[in-house]
Amino acid sequence: MQRSLLGFGCLAAIAFCATLSQAASITIEALDVRGSGVFGHPDVTSVTLNGGAVGGTTVADPLDFEITYTNLNLDGDASANDTITFTLRAAGGGMAQRAWGQGIDTGFGNLNDVTFSVTSVSGVTTDGGSPVQFDGFTGGAIGVGGNGNLNRTAEINGNAVSVMSPTTGGFQFIIDAVDFAPVATVLYDNSGGDFGAISARHHDLQFSAVIPEPTSAMLLAIGAAGFLARRK
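RE: above sequence
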């Protein structure tokens, strides 16, 4: 009886560990955050800015966007049914920091000393019940809009980005983006150029489920099986 119970515990542990290995990392790409909320992401079901409703222009430091995102697959299974809530914070630009219709800036035509971070994450995977964590930013972008020749540059975590465009005869809006390995924060700084309204436009954010180490899970299962065997 002891051997059969222990063998069953080992098999259960192996099966459990195989289930754990299905967890996945996902990236929410081009999360376009503006003073009016999040644009172009229908799976965003709720957005607040500094505890209130989004809409229009908000000037503050920090700017805290609390975002709920649904239909994610963090279990690594066939169902995109996971939901997370997180706060995307823009801080450091002083009271001139502004969320408006084109993104985040520090006054018309400027984007200096603005750091984005994720200050809180809540949610568990629907099927496995595993908590979700923020792995880091994996990309960022500036957007530049205006009539006439656009000429704007900036740095995103030290990576130079620029928008240079000749006159088209009407309003235009152009984006330049950069990708990088996951980092905890993103700094937009050193904006330059002489024409066009520049904003921090969108962000790539990576999340994953927090899964126990397979070895630890197996040891726990074997230990439980051994305890049951001793009782028998």
